[in-house]
Design goal:
The protein is mostly helical and 390 residues long. The chain folds into 2 domains: 153 residues; 200 residues, no CATH class. It contains 14 helices and 2 strands. A two-stranded antiparallel sheet has the order 1-2. Strand 1 and strand 2 form a beta hairpin. Helix 6 runs antiparallel to helix 7. It is globular and about 65 Å long.
Length: 390
């Protein structure tokens, strides 16, 4: 008896997508998003340790590598989708100036253009006004908008892929989405560096008000949009994990100041301050985002906001006391590592601006209102992100 065996059919692109094949552009833009925050943290450490820099420092290369990788990879994706895309790829794209590509790719391309544009502008600014006269100078603001756009674009690419997924691999993609959200949270924490980074700031009202505005929006949006059991906790863990690695790695490298005045002769790279314990309020956010199920977003927002603020207050109030104590002065915590131009003294172990901006019931009420607005925006944004498919 003759037996015929049919050759297995070749998987079409749509079948490969349902089988869980991850497009190469997604790891590329995640690398770009990470490279930007690593480069910025490294650059801040460079200025706190060495002072003098040039345009082509390793930290600057890491930052601009983000724009180059994101721009080239997403530019290629747009060209491929426009001229050689499958019907499924073209249907899952957005048309712009006759070209077609995913929404996230367009956002990444815009971010890359902004970053590359800021480079000569930043070099001219330094030549005209000196080195880092202002942290948020016009070229730095354009640069920050650029790599923030790349991080948002990476999230949009991931979420579109997650929301189109039909093979049950949504939770696995959720880990990548949570990673992207964690990188974005780290980016925003860097933007608020001068208000929330140092433990000395954590006993006055402005710290809690700034934190209330910065973090709930991203933690809540990630919890709403990500197909993961503990999405906000995972994103907060990514924020802490990347920052901890930077703390532990940077202080291993010898370095000396090269710009006067030098009051604190450091011998190694100054690490960033220890990260906020965001995982603690993030656990509470994840729990409240699922319970009770009947609660609408307008009622859920103040509930999540109050819980976030209360847990953050208790956690950071007491943990900051530990970070200012001699017990924290180790390479693990990276505490009490100060800039080369700081006159180290008793003030480094004290809380700042306690009398000028005290934590009062009124100040906490303002922080709660800010957190509520941030959480409500996060719910709205998360609802939109959960529907992105292009």
């Amino acid at each position: 008896m003759a037996v015929s065996v049919e050759a297995p059919a070749r998987a079409e692109p749509s079948d490969r997508a349902r089988a869980g094949f991850l497009p190469w552009v997604i790891p590329a833009v995640l690398f770009a998003a990470t490279s930007a925050v690593v480069g910025v943290i490294w650059d801040i450490s460079w200025h706190r340790t060495i002072g003098r820099d040039t345009f082509l420092t390793p930290a600057h290369i890491a930052i601009y590598l983000s724009g180059i990788v994101a721009g080239l990879s997403c530019g290629f994706l747009v060209l491929k989708t426009t001229f050689a895309g499958t019907p499924e790829e073209r249907a899952a794209s957005v048309r712009f100036w006759g070209f077609r590509g995913p929404l996230g790719a367009w956002v990444c391309i815009w971010g890359a253009i902004a970053m590359i544009t800021s480079a000569p502008f930043d070099d001219w600014w330094h030549n005209a006004y000196g080195l880092d006269v202002k942290v948020l100078s016009p070229p730095h603001a354009v640069l920050a908008l650029g790599f923030t756009a790349i991080q948002v674009g990476a999230l949009l690419l991931l979420l579109a892929w997650q929301n189109r997924e039909h093979s049950g691999r949504g939770p696995a993609l959720g880990w990548l989405v949570a990673y992207g959200m964690g990188v974005l949270i780290l980016n925003k924490s860097i933007m608020g560096f001068q208000y929330i980074a140092f433990p000395n700031e954590m006993h006055h009202a402005l710290f809690y008000q700034v934190s209330a505005g910065l973090f709930p929006i991203f933690l809540v949006a990630g919890a709403r949009a990500t197909k993961l059991r503990w999405p906000a906790t995972t994103a907060a863990g990514v924020y802490m994990g990347v920052l901890l690695v930077m703390i532990w790695v940077l202080q291993l490298f010898p370095a000396q100041p090269k710009l006067a005045p030098i009051y604190n002769p450091v011998t190694h790279m100054v690490p960033p301050p220890f990260p906020l314990l965001l995982v603690v309020p993030a656990v509470v956010i994840d729990w409240l985002m699922r319970r009770p199920a009947w609660l609408n977003d307008w009622l859920r927002a103040p509930l999540v906001a109050l819980a976030f603020l209360a847990v953050l207050f208790v956690t950071q109030w007491f943990f900051s006391m530990f970070l200012l104590s001699p017990a924290s002065e180790s390479s693990f915590f990276g505490a009490q590592r100060w800039d080369y131009n700081s006159r180290v003294g008793a003030w480094t172990h004290e809380f700042w601006n306690v009398e000028g901006n005290p934590v009062t019931p009124r100040a906490l009420a303002v922080a709660a209102l800010i957190a509520t607005v941030s959480a409500r925006i996060g719910l709205w944004w998360g609802n939109w992100l959960a529907r992105v498919k292009r």
